[in-house]
Amino acid sequence: MKYYLKLILLLISAAILFQGFQCSSREMTTAKVAIQNNDHPKAIENLQKEIDKNPKNAEAYIMLAELKLKQGDHAAAAELMSKAEPLCQNDPKLRERPAQFKAEQFKTFVTNGQESFNRYADKKEARHLTTAIRHFNGALTFRPNYAESYRMIGVAYELLEQPDSALAAYLNYLSILEPSIFFAVKNNFFIGSETSNLSKNIGSGTYLRS
After folding, report:
1. First-to-last C-alpha distance (Å) of the chain
2. Of 167, 180, 172, the residue nearest 148 (C-alpha)
């Protein structure tokens, strides 16, 4: 009896495994095997072929984005994850991965940028400012409207005595903050203002019960 039970379980497992291979295209299967063998160029080639054949394959975009990130192509990785995001909303296994990926990369770049500034403050070596600029630009790849990145880039360029580049960064910083500044001026709300005055100008908040 135990022999037959083991045989049945083995057949069920084989059927599930076979079905998994049947669901994957040749390109996807080849790409996954290539990744396991650390053959990233071959994996990238086959994932790109899969996307060309099946542009709605969210998993292919995600896998390709992760490989592009390993190659240091952050812009391509961010673009691929943005393409994957709307395609995997109905897949519970993939739904959260694009947002998590972008959030993790953004946090890493910001943290590394701040650490580079700390190294500059300690050693006064210009190369740390250059590294900080690279990291904060990386953060902007994953969150383009993060104003603080532009401000820190501007500070770094100022310390490097590159005023034109610093000015360009500060102008980007201000362009992102402009709607908030306009809103504050319009409603007479400034640093140190009483919140009661803000409520008079824009109205009190509405609380919703769940």
Report:
1. 55
2. 172
Only one residue has tokens 């969210």, namely: 58
Q: Taking all residues of the chain, what is their mean pLDDT, rounded to a whole number?
A: 84
Q: Is the pLDDT of residue 132 over 50?
A: yes
14 pLDDT higher than 50: no
Under DSSP, the state recorded for 169 is H
CA angle 176/181/182 to nearest 5° reads 105
Tell me the domain boundaries of the chain. 23-95, 106-201
Same fold, 23-95 and 106-201: yes
Residue 146 has pLDDT above 70, yes or no: yes
pTM to 2 decimal places:
0.72
Q: How far apart are CA 56 and CA 40, in angstroms?
A: 22
Q: What are the helix (H) ranges across 92-146?
A: 97-123, 126-142
CATH class of the domain whose range is 23-95: mainly alpha
Largest Cα separation within the chain, whole Å, is: 83
Domain 106-201: CATH superfamily is Tetratricopeptide repeat domain (1.25.40.10)
Given a cut of 90, whether residue 204 has pLDDT beyond it is no
Per residue in 89-122, pLDDT (tens digit) is 999 999 999 999 999 999 999 999 999 999 999 9
Could you tell me which of 101, 102, 98 has the C-alpha nearest to residue 89? 98
156: left (phi over 0), alpha (psi -120 to 50) or beta: alpha
